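thread from #wetlab-drylab

HS: before we spend reagent money on co-crystallization trials with uridine-5'-diphosphate, can we at least see a predicted complex? here's what I'd submit
DV: go for it
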Amino acid sequence: MQGIQDYAGIAGTDVIDQLRQLAEPLRGMKVVHVNSTRVGGGVAEILAKLVPLMNDLGIETHWEVITGNADFYQCTKHFHNALQGDSVEIPASLLRNFEEINRQNAEQLRPALEDADIVFIHDPQPAPLLSMMPERKGRWIWRCHIDVSRPHRPVWKYLRPFLTGYDASIWSLPDFAQSLPHPQYIIPPSIDPLSDKNVELPASEVEEVYSRFDIDPQRPLLTQVSRYDRFKDPVGVIRAYRLSKDFAPGLQLVLAGGSATDDPEGEAVLDEVHAAANGDPDVKILLLPSDAHRTINALQRASDIVMQKSTKEGFGLTVTEALWKGKPVIGGNTGGIRLQVINHHTGFLVSTPEGAALRTRYLLNHREVLESMGQKARTFVRDNFLLTRHLREYLTLMVILRNDHADRVELS
Ligand code: UDP
C-alpha cells in the first residue's frame, strides 16, 4: 500500500508538502465515507485509494458500505437511471423498502456515524442516513457521482428532502449542481497513478493479454472498459466498430466489463451485447473479476484507441485511465467526459455510433495524430486528474467546514 510520500515522484515534493500542510489542522479528526459497494464502479475505485492516503496524513478515516436486499438495489438502480434522465416510475413499495433498509443500516453504523467529525455520503443509496442520525455531532457532505444534469423530476423531488439537511454537497461538474440550501462544491474525481490499474507495466504483461484473449497484435484494437450498463452504450460501440470495419478490415474490438454488487441490470445488458456482436470473432466480450486491475491496465495499453461512448456519464474514470496511458479517447459528448476529452486535442467527442466510426477511421489512418493526441492526453491527466489534486480539494473542503465556511483560513 502506498503512502503519501510515494507520490512525490509523479506530483512533485511541493504538492506533497502542501497536502501535509492542509492535513495538519485536521489531524486526529474522525472521517467516515459511506457508499453501497466495495467493488465495481468508480466510487469504490476512488475510495480504495483515497481512504488509506487520508489515514497516512493523520486523519482517522473509515470506509463503510451499506448493504441491502434485491429490492433495495433495484430501487437504487432506478434512482441512478432516473437521475441520469430516464423517465422511471418507482413503485411506492420499493421506496418504502429503500427507507427501511437505510434504517437498518443506520442502526448498524450509528456509533461510527454519530461520533464522526466529517461524514461523506456517496450517491443516493445511503442518502437517508443523515435524517436517521438526530444525535450526529459532525458535518455531513453529500457527494454525488452521477450525471444529474437533467434528472427525472419526480425522482429528484422524492430524494431532495433527504439531501437538504446536509452541510454541503460535492458535484463533479457545475452542470450537475442542483437547487439545495447549502454550499455546493465542484470536485472532479481522479485516478491513482501508482495503483495496479494505472502503473506502468512491463511489455511482457501487455503482450500476455493478446494471447490470453486471442487478440492479434498485428491488427488495430479498439477497447471500451465499462460495467454493462445502458448509459455506457456498449451496443453503440459495437455499431461504431462495424461501421469502422468497412474501412479498416482488420479492426478488433474488446468490450471489457465486470459487474458491481449494487448493479442488478448488468446481466440483461450483457445479453443485449452478445446479441449485437452476433458471434463476430473479432469482438471480444469480457466479463472480468472485480480485482482484474492489471488486466484492464494491460488491455488499455494494448489498445490503439479507447472508446467511452456513454450517453450519460458522471465522470468516467475509464476515460482518465486511458488518457493517462497515452491513448486518445473517443468519448460520448456528455457529462464528465467533456471535462476530459478536449475535442481534437486529447480525443474526439461524439454523439452517435456514426460519429464514433468516423473518428476511429480518422485516427487509424493518421497515426501521427493518434500519437500526438496520446501525449497531450497524458499531460492533461497529470495536470488535472491525479489523486493528489483530488485529495487537496477534499482536504481544503474539510478545512473550510471546520472553519464554518469562513472566506479566509490561515494555515500554519
Ligand atoms: N472497472 C473495472 N472492471 C470492469 C469495469 C470497470 O475495474 O470490468 C473499473 C474501471 O477501470 C474504472 C471504474 O471501474 O476504474 C469505473 O468507473 P467509471 O467512472 O468509468 O464508471 P462507473 O462504473 O462508476 O459508472
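DV: DSSP finds 15 helices and twelve strands in the chain.
HS: ok that's useful, forwarding to the group
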